[in-house]
Specification:
3 helices, 37% helix, 18% strand, four-stranded parallel sheet, Rossmann fold
């Protein structure tokens, strides 16, 4: 099975992203386990930033950078465990040709 890329669009507020990081990590752990049980392979498309204290995409610019590294036809999961679903991944999704699944709390 091809790689499924996971992205996490963050809140506009740094404090909210930091506060939601633990819930996001737990949700991703459960989501990845479920995909792997079905034979899938998930790769997180962007890292945790230890300086910021979270692993969310926190700007449209960063979202475009992340999507530039994802193959255009690859499946993508947008995983959200934050208070505010923002537009940071929208520009990348507009140009993406592969299937997209949104998972949110």
């Amino acid at each position: 099975m091809e790689t499924i890329y996971l992205v996490a669009s963050g809140d506009l507020r740094l404090s909210a992203n930091r506060n939601c990081e633990a819930a996001q990590a737990e949700m991703e752990k459960q989501l990845i386990a479920a995909v792997e049980r079905e034979g899938g392979k998930v790769k997180r498309a962007h890292p945790f930033d230890p300086v910021k204290g979270h692993g969310f995409i926190d700007s449209q610019k960063y979202g475009l950078e992340v999507f530039s590294r994802i193959p255009k036809d690859a499946p993508v999961i947008v995983a959200e465990a934050v208070w505010q679903y923002t537009h940071h991944v929208l520009p990348g999704l507009l140009e993406h040709r592969g299937p997209v699944l949104t998972v949110a709390n």
